[in-house]
Write a structure and sequence with these properties.
Number of domains: 2
Distance between the termini: 28 Å
Radius of gyration: 17 Å
Structural class: alpha/beta
Length: 122
């Protein structure tokens, strides 16, 4: 299983600035981003022979609200391709629905201005 490097790209390649305030004020609100990654390095456990790649984020951008319906479609397609499932299990479908539920899938418009709390229920 790959590990994720803790560092974000420097300069213009870090597109998270526009949501920094929102991340502070609403830490449980989910955001959709698109990232370009590569391998920063590989760690080898000499006892087991296991090798683990470390993923580096080369560029990351926040998906605009108007583009969320298309982003949702792309995430669903990639997840279906990776999992080999044509119909996603209900729990995965629900997780994706929560991430995109404030967006009208036909217009891409924000349905309300209320923050959505995505904290898992007990």
């Amino acid at each position: 299983m790959p590990k994720l490097s803790a560092n974000l790209p420097k300069g213009d390649a870090d597109g998270l600035g526009p949501i920094a305030r929102d991340l502070i004020e609403f830490p449980h609100r989910q955001h959709v981003v698109i990232a370009v990654v590569d391998c920063k390095g590989v760690t080898t456990d000499f006892d087991t022979g296991a090798t683990v790649p470390t993923v580096r984020i080369r560029r990351i951008e926040v998906v605009d609200r108007a583009d969320l319906p298309e982003a949702e479609r792309l995430v669903r397609r990639a997840l279906e391709r990776r999992s080999g499932l044509i119909v996603l299990p209900l729990d995965l479908e629900d997780e994706l629905t929560v991430a995109f539920k404030r967006i009208d899938p036909k217009t891409g418009e924000l349905l309300d201005d209320e923050p959505v709390d995505t904290t898992p229920e007990d």
